[in-house]
Amino acid sequence: MLHALLDDLDGTVADTTWIYEKVSGELCAELGIPFDAGTFLEHGAKAPQEWLEEMKIDEARSTIYKNEFGKRARVLLAAHADWRTGARKAFTYLQENDVPRAIITTAKIISVDVIDTRLGIRAFIQHIVGGEHVDPKFKPKPHGLLIARSKINVDPAHCGYVGDQKSDMLAARNAGMTGILIPNRHTHPDAFPAADIVVSHHDEI
Predict the structure, then answer these.
(1) Beta-bridge partners for 103
(2) H helices within 81-182, ranges in order?
(3) For residue 61, what are the CA distances in angstroms to 44, 68, 180?
(4) 186 contacts: CB under 8 Å, gap ≥ 6
(5) Could you please report the per-residue DSSP string of 12-72?
(6) In tens digits, what is the pLDDT along the chain, a chain of 205 residues?
(7) C-alpha span between 28 and 83 (Å, rounded)
(8) pTM
(9) Are the C-beta atoms of residues 33 and 69 closer than 8 Å to each other?
(10) Of 100, 118, 205, 113, nearest to 162 (Cα)?
């Protein structure tokens, strides 16, 4: 039985993945980096420095990409970030029933703050572990999930981690938690067999 619920943020709680795809596409076009929908599907769940290295992009272009990506994304997040279907309703229920909850995300806290300003996520969440806290131990490494677990003081076996990518599901497994997949159009097909549970929306959990 689950006693606590931990969540990824982008693409899971917040409908924001399309923003990152848009910004990635624009930057890659400007910098001459190969990019299409398949590129984002393959690499979008990773931190930029990871997939830029995997694609063997030179340091000069990688630096420009990393410096510009967050700034451009935050402009769009401030204007367009939205809740994923059922997420706010589920968070309200968890809050009313005193279920421990946290968010673990690769996003930097400055970007989390922009999403929070628009959606008010912190009103429902007890703890947020951002990219600064886990770099370079990004998912599928369980480091961020274990930091959050220590804050809510619940046995990992009784925690569920909700995400939209294979790396989320593997991080949950590596942390000894139940992996709950809520897919979207950016979810890679290999995420499904890695999940313990698959649902369409938060309010189905």
Answers:
(1) 7, 128
(2) 87-96, 109-119, 131-134, 143-152, 166-174
(3) 18, 11, 36
(4) 11, 17, 18, 21, 40, 41, 44, 164
(5) TTBS-HHHHHHHHHHHHHHHT----HHHHHHHTTS-HHHHHHHTT--HHHHHHHHHHHHHH
(6) 899 999 999 999 999 999 999 999 999 999 999 887 777 777 766 777 778 888 889 999 999 999 999 999 999 999 999 999 999 999 999 999 999 999 999 899 999 999 999 999 999 999 999 999 887 778 999 999 999 999 999 999 999 999 999 999 999 999 999 999 999 999 999 999 999 999 999 989 8
(7) 27
(8) 0.93
(9) no
(10) 205
Tokens of 140: 């599928």
Rounded distance between C-alpha atoms, residue 74 and residue 81, angstroms = 10
- State which amino acid sits at residue 200: S
Side chain identity, residue 63: T
CA dihedral 13, 98, 140, 197 (to 10 degrees): -80
C-alpha 52: how far from chain center: 18
First vs last Cα of the chain: how many Å apart? Answer: 12
Phi, psi of 73 (to 5 degrees): -65, -40
Query: For residue 129, which of 90, 171, 96 has the smallest C-alpha distance?
Result: 171
55, 62, 11, 3: which is closest to 184 by C-alpha?
11
Residue for token pair 């401030």: 78
**Are the beta carbons of 118 and 81 closer than 8 angstroms?**
yes
